[in-house]
Amino acid sequence: MRLKDCHNFHDFRRMAKQRLPGPIFNYIDGAADDEGTYRRNTSAFDDCDLIPNVLRGVTDVDMSVTVMGQKLAMPVYCSPTALQRLFHHQGERAVAAAAAKYGTMFGVSSLGTVSLEEARRIGNGQPQVYQFYFHKDRGLNRDMMGRARQAGVEVMMLTVDSITGGNRERDKRTGFAIPFKLNLAGITQFVIKPGWAINYFTHEPFKLPQLDGHVDMGGGAMSISRYFTEMLDPSMSWDDVAAMVQHWDGQFCLKGIMSVEDAKRAVEIGCTGIVLSNHGGRQLDGSRSAFDQLAEIVDAVGDKIDVIMDGGVQRGTHVLKALSLGAKAVGLGRYYLFPLAAAGQAGVERALDLMRIEIERGMRLMGCTSVKEFNRHNLRFRR
Ligand SMILES: Cc1cc2nc3c(=O)[nH]c(=O)nc-3n(C[C@H](O)[C@H](O)[C@H](O)COP(=O)(O)O)c2cc1C
Q1: Is residue 104 in contact with ligand 1, taking CB distance under 6 Å?
Q2: What CATH number does residue 360 fall under?
């Protein structure tokens, strides 16, 4: 399968599956427990339909948005994801460059494999998000914020839905872990994908530069699962986060908010954004999809804070439906990860290009010249 044969999410996913060893493909593709939330994230978009207006003289389409003070050329951004070097040797470099080319934000994960400083340089002036977790070590939290400030990061994104790791049964079956602890079946999967292995071992070694100096993980002393259980602070509270928001004194959002009560508290403590998210179904299986929960949250706080959502987005029309309900922007996860795994930077660029074309075409067919024109009148739920 070649890149030019990829026309949508499913094609990229198929190409990534061909290229990646099974344990890595399943790490990206998998989710928690029975993966019900993961499936719902995408199927939720099918419960409503767009209602187009015609004869509106749509010549120029402007799909730009401003979210948390950042102007984006399109209403989607690349949500932070961990370990991209494993998926393709270009890793975050590819995603940062592709996002910059398409005028949008790129989120660097604290579990990213390229430093946020380097990602920033590649990002070429496009706004950058730094996603981090709340550590028991308050000094480490402050250090991370200090480093982000020095690097010039525009938006801090604290992930709040991961005080413990989700139950990813596919990873248990394959033995996927960092460092690798593969079982025999897992090892076989690597042996039958020599292309990936050659690519992986002939490029620079895997590392986690956001955590280097704080945690020895890449080297093998600490596994990612131990990082979650030993380094992160499950007692993290609203007061702790309020202190961080104050300390940062800039654009700060919480990723993984789902309830109205929490959304209101985010407003109270001075956050400028919230990302409705269930972490791509990878944390609490049975949690509601962000799209299903969007209207409720927008009604409660949409005039006080920027409401963003992620999860299950595979099409331009999914984005248009989220904008219709009041989302300010939409995060992409696997939508760009499979293209990264399939073909590196060229893959991510193709995926973002297809998304841009789909959004533009959708806007024309909806009779909208600007994102601001989307509202609930152009959407109907079936039940
Ligand atoms: C392989 C993978 C790694 C991820 N790593 C992180 C991470 O390090 N930090 C984080 O906040 N979210 C992480 N996420 C969640 C994404 O940021 C995003 O919320 C999710 O992928 C959206 O769902 P989607 O993949 O269906 O678009 C990860 C998701 C995937 C698939």
Answers
A1: no
A2: 3.20.20.70
In a domain, residue 374? The reply is no
What is the pLDDT confidence band of residue 222, given thresholds at 50, 70 and 90? low
Using alpha carbons only, what angle is made at residue 174 by residues 213 and 196, rounded to the nearest 5 degrees?
Answer: 70
Domain carrying residue 100: 3-368
Domain count for the chain: 1
Of the CA atoms within 13 Å of residue 279, those in its CB half-sphere come to 26
Question: In the chain, what are the helix, strand and coil shares in percent, each to the nearest 5?
Answer: 50, 15, 40
Active-site annotation holds for 279: yes
Is the pLDDT higher at 313 or at 206? 313
CA-closest residue to ligand 1 atom 15: 279
| pLDDT tens column, 124-150 | 899 999 999 998 888 888 889 999 999
Digit-coded pLDDT (tens) for 188-211: 888 888 888 888 889 988 888 988
Flag whether 373 is in a domain. no
Task: Report CA(342)–ligand 1 centroid distance (Å).
Answer: 18
User: Does 186 fall in a domain?
Assistant: yes
Is any atom of ligand 1 closer than 6 Å to the C-beta of 30?
no
